[in-house]
Design a protein that fits this description.
about 575 residues; alpha/beta; 3-stranded mixed β-sheet; about 10% strand; elongated
């Protein structure tokens, strides 16, 4: 199903609803409900096309490496570029911060959470490896250097022990192993790594498995998810260890990088179905790829070597004495001409948040920080020898191009986070409607009250606000051509598409879904304000949505339909004049 298919269907539904509102039985007679039925559309979300990554945002040597690596693997360039940027952000760690607001500590370090969504066998694991290869080459060098230093330390310690106590002097200090990435560290081990490294990248071959491993050493009763959520926000970490020194990390910088299969993406959600802000923190890149084909040409040493040297230069940034007062920290400042650009983008993103509900709205709330992080990392890559120079207007505009690329991929991705759950709920409701429609005693007569009674009695998943939520599910099913609703007096009649009944059992069922969880994510607030928008359109497409003032209760099923539907793949760019 394309965006156009869904939008045309949605507009027809909206026109029919407006016709119902204008119908006067005394003057116009009964409206037409028996027009020919179309084939029902699959219960899935229409997606915008995958955008191309703005390669010009990368310095020439990095651009050449990303292009060569992606061509060698047969994957889009962003599947290599985004893990690379996240890895650089973690390596820079807390050594440098982009200060975004004058006179305050509000700003961004470089850590990012990047998830590559693709089917197995499409190259996502190899793409992540390629993105991190320059950093892992430094990791291999650090391991070798540590092994040499550790051997020397063991010899020095043995010699120190052999001396009489009065002649020993200071005890040799065990060398610290430098870590850039980790794969399977527990939360406690990760905090230990952060205590002696500027930042760390957690690399998970399968993000769903990484999340499933949370709290495995505490019988599932820990708070790993909450701690990782806090670390994304660079909240201070303090761990008290029995018999050992307290670990204190004032600004933890952690990148999370990995792949995930589309049918496992819903596992990123909280088990209880709550919107805890965890998914909001991910930069999700979704591609619909075929299995990768063999390519004989790999990544040349000539292309890789200058990138490794660039990364080595950045790794030479001086370590910071971690300050108590953030104002004492070395920071990159926005250039004066960049500040109006930042403000314009920030305010427009805020307007989009106001008109965007659910999981996508929560992710939009994190985009200012994502922009700051992306801008800082790109600034470091372009200015490895002078990283403290001001971030220019042009650099910020290029970073905005990257974050707008991310915004489109979030729209493509987040339907999968809650989409399988939403489709499961719609399928359960449709199953109940079909059961009623096949009851010969009813002779095809079904009301919304009948449906409500059946789903509430047999499945009990609607919870508080069941009537409103059922309205939204019915609208969703009508938009996709599975049913039609119309008023007869004070009741709402539900008709089933005969083509659905001809197909036999419902073909939209989704199993293994917790139907007691919320049908959709909350709007993403992290304060004490309202948790749901006043007129939430739960099954609206993940797109620009409607703007305030466009929503009216002009429904016949008690659902909310925009009077001026906006296409999810609108060609208008709200940042066009900035770019």
């Amino acid at each position: 199903m394309t965006v156009v298919d869904l939008e045309e269907r949605r507009q027809r539904v909206a026109e029919k609803i407006r016709a119902m509102d204008e119908w006067d039985p005394a003057e116009q007679g009964a409206p037409e409900h028996d027009s020919p039925w179309e084939e029902p559309l699959p219960l899935e979300e229409a997606l915008p096309a995958a955008p191309e990554f703005p390669l010009h945002a990368l310095p020439p040597v990095v651009r050449a490496y990303v292009m060569e690596a992606s061509q060698a693997l047969g994957v889009p360039a962003d599947m290599v570029a985004m893990p690379f940027l996240a890895g650089i952000g973690a390596m820079a760690g807390d050594r440098l911060k982009l200060r975004l607001q004058r006179g305050s500590g509000f700003g961004a370090f470089g850590g990012m959470w990047v998830g590559i969504i693709a089917e197995p066998g499409t190259g996502k694991t190899e793409a992540v490896k390629a993105g991190l290869k320059p950093i892992r080459m430094l990791q291999a060098e650090a391991i070798r250097a540590f092994q040499v230093a550790k051997l020397q330390w063991e010899q020095d310690l043995e010699a120190w022990d052999a001396k009489p106590k009065g002649e020993r002097g200071e005890k040799p200090v065990r060398p610290q192993e430098k870590s850039y990435t980790t794969a399977d560290a527990t939360l406690e081990a990760l905090v230990g790594l952060l205590a002696v490294n500027p930042g760390v990248a957690v690399v998970a071959d399968e993000l769903a498995g990484w999340i499933a491993s949370y709290d495995q050493y505490r019988g599932g009763k820990g708070a790993d998810r909450e701690h990782f959520t806090s670390m994304w926000s660079n909240e201070t970490v303090q761990v008290h260890r029995l018999g050992r020194d307290t670990v204190f990390v004032p600004d933890p910088v952690v990148s999370v990088i990995g792949g995930i299969q589309p049918d496992r993406l819903s596992e990123l959600r909280h088990r209880a179905g709550a919107s805890d802000g965890f998914v909001d923190r991910f930069i999700l890149i979704r591609h619909d790829l075929r299995p990768s084909r063999w390519r004989d040409e790999g990544i040349s040493t000539e292309t890789l070597a200058p990138v490794v040297e660039l990364v080595r230069t950045l790794d030479a940034l001086p370590a910071v004495v971690r300050p108590i007062d953030d104002q004492e920290r070395s920071a990159v400042q926005l250039a004066p001409e960049a500040r109006p650009v930042w403000q314009a983008w920030f305010d427009r993103n805020a307007a989009l948040i106001e008109s965007t509900d659910g999981q996508l709205g929560g992710s939009y709330r994190k985009l200012p920080m994502q922009l700051g992080r992306i801008a800082l990392v790109l600034h470091l890559l372009w200015n490895p020898d002078d990283p403290l120079r001001m971030l220019s207007r042009d650099e910020l505009l290029v970073a905005i191009e990257v974050v707008e690329f991310v915004r489109i991929h979030l729209r493509r991705s987040l339907g999968l986070v809650i989409g399988s759950h939403r489709m499961a709920v719609a399928s359960k409701v449709m199953d109940a409607i079909e059961t009623l429609a096949r009851d010969p005693e009813r002779e095809g007569s079904i009301t919304k009250r009948d449906v409500h009674r059946r789903v509430d009695r047999q499945q009990e998943f609607m919870g508080e606000g069941a009537g409103k939520r059922l309205d939204e599910v019915l609208e969703y099913l009508e938009e996709f051509g599975w049913i039609r609703c119309h008023r007869t007096g004070r009741s709402v009649q539900v008709k089933v598409n005969p083509k659905v009944l001809e197909q036999g059992e419902t073909s939209t069922m989704v199993s293994d879904v917790d139907l007691h969880a919320p049908l959709w994510g909350q709007r993403g607030h992290e304060d004490n304000g309202p948790k749901e928008p006043e007129t939430a359109r739960i099954f609206a497409p993940f797109a620009s949505g409607t703007t305030p003032g466009q929503r009216e209760d002009n429904s016949h099923c008690g659902v909310i339909v925009p009077t001026s539907p906006l296409s999810p793949d609108t060609d208008s760019d709200p940042y066009e004049e900035l770019l």
